[in-house]
Amino acid sequence: MAATGTQMVDIEAAQIPAVVGGTQSLFKKANRPVILKFEDVVYTVKMEQGGYFNKKNTNHLDEKSILKGTSGLVRPGEMLAMLGPSGSGKTTLLTALGGRLGGGHLSGTITYNNKPFSNAIKRNTGFVTQDDVLYPHLTVQETLVYTALLRLPRTLAKDQKVQHAEAVIDQLGLSRCKDSIIGGPLLRGVSGGERKRVSIGQEMLINPSLLFLDEPTSGLDSTTAQRIVSKLLELANGGRTVVMTIHQPSSRLFYMFHKVLLLSEGNPLYFGECSGALDYFSSFGFAPSVAMNPADFLLDLANGVSTTEYEEDQTAVKRTLVTAYKTKLSESLKSELGVDNQCDDIMDEKKFNRWSNTWWSQFSVLFIRGLRERKHETFTGIKVTQVLIVAVLSGLLWWQSNTTNLQDQVGLLYYTSCFWGFYPVFEAIFTFPQERMMLEKERSSGMYRLSSFFMALTLGDLPMVLVLPTIFYTIVYWMAGLKSMPGPFLLGLLVTLLGVLCAQGLGLAIGAIVMDAKSANAFGSVIVLIFQLASSFYVQKMPEFIGWLKYMSIIQ
């Protein structure tokens, strides 16, 4: 069995080309070309109609068709652009082709080298989402190195994985900004184009033969967008199958694609070479009246805008284009799909492990990455100042309290328990909701086990979570003039830290269950309030039917 496992990861490692001198092009040729076919793809979801007061008194849900019989064929070395207005089904189709579509009902046929989607295909596929989901405080180099350590097979040494990350940085033109942080909405970092190239680089680390991208040029200027598409074209020329959605490309970008798929409300209007699109629509009376960007013209048609006799009837324009597709393109496309275009498939599904690395390797990388990222969030100036101000103010209010003021000291201990009973809860509640997009992205790529992520996240937060309450307790304890002996001090500190750990665990549990920041915050407020009321401070003797709550209270 051990020999078999070694053979599996050796075959996976064979997909990753060797790096000579650290700068060799990793993308000259795909190791496993993939022919992508999709035929009569239909996707429907069930939806409730009307608002709250207009709901029918029935359990019936109306079905909405997102995709309506879409077909296409993309060969290695080709780049397909999916074009259409918002809501046309571009992203839904891209997600379905990438094997990431959940919910709803998907029918039709999608094959990869005439085989269904499998774990082997998944490990050989790159998927770049529209939003660049990256950690803002990590540098470009750190981002790609950590991704390489998690995604590349275990047979490669750490130095080899780092070399692959460096080679990707060089190939994507990120050398000048590799030591710059990624940044975010409130943190200045690299530019939008550089951030997009980092996202593409994360997928190119595994040298994929099939690459999906969701609107990679959105929000970028025309020059930056052309650089991105030029790099993607270079990758396609290496024998890769590249499929992307694109919103409104310029004319020079449009003609860089090999094929285009035009969608309107889920209906295919055209599939074929970009150079033949205008001639196709002109053949039955839909020609641009003036010289214009062909992509703009196609989008006008997809929206039902035309200068023909149907000028005022957008529905008629769409209906005519759908009918023309079915009569002029659909049958010839089905004939082309019926041809047995088979690439040499050098990878066997049975030779792939589900995970690239061991549980411990995943945990250690996630643990270190989490420490580097979240240290900036835990020890921000605002949080440290907040705790210091509250600690000093509390110390002044209970300044040199002595044993004759026993009620005051009881109040101080209760206040400390309450403060560190709810503060960590609301800090931890937002952990999983904030990590949700990153978790979904990396788990979809099969980067690590959920258990390794949870343990790394939980244990990585412990040192940082315990520092602030230790500082708080030390300041308050000595300012309040409690027993100046190490035994009582350490015992009180231990009890406080145990309460913090319980509160943090509660916050993590609430955040993981609810996974919505606002809902989790509301739910957490109710739980903390119940714990506070059940702490036996306000009510010494509770009724028996509700007295069990005090055993659940962290403060109690």
From TrEMBL:
Q: Where in the cell is it found?
A: Membrane
Q: How does it sit in the membrane?
A: Multi-pass membrane protein
Q: What is its main location?
A: membrane
UniProt domain ABC transporter: residue ranges: 36-290
Keyword annotations: ATP-binding, Membrane, Nucleotide-binding, Transmembrane, Transmembrane helix, Transport
Entries under SMART domains matching the protein: AAA (SM00382)
**Which Gene Ontology MF annotations are present?**
ATP binding
InterPro entries (UniProt xref): AAA+_ATPase, ABC2_TM, ABC_transporter-like_ATP-bd, ABC_transporter-like_CS, ABCG_dom, ABCG_transporters, P-loop_NTPase
The similarity comment for this entry is:
Belongs to the ABC transporter superfamily. ABCG family. Eye pigment precursor importer (TC 3.A.1.204) subfamily.
Q: Can you name this protein?
A: ABC transporter G member 9
